[in-house]
Specification:
369 residues, mainly beta, nine-stranded antiparallel sheet, 3 helices, 15 strands, 12% helix, elongated, binds zinc ion
Length: 369
């Protein structure tokens, strides 16, 4: 435990304006005789510190419930009004602070208000962190002007609103089918040498032409000395203690490992064969590519992944946007159900101009139309 030094807190008399009175020595204002108000205690500047010699600490002051005078923890009756002190409340302590932070009555007031908010389960307004801030002065927190908040607010809500309206505000449009389009493709894979890399401890057995490189695999935290600062703690009896508080600093250090770059024989994509067509009269078919079928020797080929896509092209039949085109990517069964002899209805986003393919329903046939 680091050495603790005791100094006097300061307080300002609210009645006669006397400043920097001593918290322990001046229980009453030496100028007007007013009783010390413990909520007006604050930490002195470094240059104004008054040490307390041979301090005997008996505890946090108690506040007389009749006249609000702070009394030493051992007192049983109020030194001011003689009232009994049993059940009297302790004075509220200031939050711990860094050693070179300027303090005054205003900051003390904010500190107590914030403590009250925290005790009630709230979050105090974010001001400069009073504790552990070793700057010479506390900078006033710049306030954002109201009009800026209003502007930001309207931009955010405006955008959300716009998107919602854009998605929800739809109109019914009539569509006709202009084209059916399909495509089916099959990948052809070849057993061949490919380049790859992995950490050497997980390199496949059949890799060859290996080259190793040292690379960063992870980071570890390494202890890197102590970080110390002075902390001032309100003792609650008109004094405060100053002691050094230290914590271990860490730095991040890279951990190197061997990375292996190698060649390996394996199945890999070689090319794709595609079949495509227009119209739904003939059934789509899979391409039937030629490939060198054999297994696990260099140059062998096999069929790989399949992909298929079925698109119906629509055009708006009437209205302001007559002739406007829309595409729907569908599964094969649905794709085939659409035909050019039928009119369809769909929801269309008024702002973003897209149709909802799921919302398409039959309208009426062209013959009756
Ligand atoms: Zn006074
Ligand atoms: Zn009293």
């Amino acid at each position: 435990m680091a050495e603790e030094k005791i100094y006097e807190m300061l307080w300002d008399c609210e009645f006669c304006g006397s400043k920097k009175l001593l918290g322990k020595t001046h229980r009453h204002c030496p100028n007007c005789g007013a009783t010390q108000d413990p909520t007006r205690r604050y930490f002195p500047l470094d240059s104004e510190k008054v040490a307390v010699q041979d301090h005997i600490y008996v505890g946090v002051d108690k506040i007389c419930s009749f006249c609000a005078t702070p009394n030493g923890a051992k007192a049983t009756f109020c030194g001011n009004c003689g009232g009994a002190l049993d059940g009297a409340k302790d004075v509220t302590l200031r939050t711990d602070q860094g050693a070179h932070v300027e303090d005054n009555i205003q900051i003390a007031k904010v500190d107590f208000e914030n403590q009250k908010i925290i005790n009630e389960g709230g979050v105090p307004p974010k001001t400069e962190d009073l504790a552990f801030k070793d700057s010479k002065f506390i900078k006033p927190h710049p306030k954002t002007p109201k009009w800026v908040l209003w502007m930001l607010g309207s931009i955010v809500f405006g955008t959300i609103g716009f998107v919602c309206v854009g998605v929800l505000w739809t109109e019914k449009v009539t569509l006709k089918v202009t084209k059916h389009e399909w495509s089916r493709s099959v990948d052809i894979e070849r057993f061949k040498p490919v380049s790859d890399s992995s950490w050497c401890d997980s390199m496949p057995m059949n890799a060859y032409s290996v080259s190793r490189r040292s690379e960063v695999r992870s980071h570890r935290q390494v202890a890197d000395g102590q970080e110390c600062h002075m902390v001032r703690s309100d003792k609650g009896d008109g004094t405060y203690s100053e002691r050094e508080s230290c914590s271990t600093k860490y730095r991040s250090e890279p951990v190197y490992d061997s990375k292996c770059y190698y060649t390996i024989d394996r199945w890999a994509f070689e090319r794709a064969a595609t079949a495509k067509g227009i119209g739904a009269d003939k059934d789509p078919y899979w391409p039937n590519p030629e490939y060198k079928s054999c297994s696990n020797s260099i140059g062998c080929e096999r069929l790989g992944a399949k992909k298929e896509s079925y698109v119906v092209h629509f055009e708006e039949e009437s209205g302001e946007a007559k002739g406007e085109k829309h595409d729907c990517d569908l599964d094969q069964v649905k794709w085939k159900q659409y035909n050019s002899k039928t009119l369809y209805k769909s929801d269309k986003s008024v702002i973003f101009n897209y149709i909802t393919c799921d919302s398409i329903t039959e309208s009426e046939s062209i013959e009756e139309y």
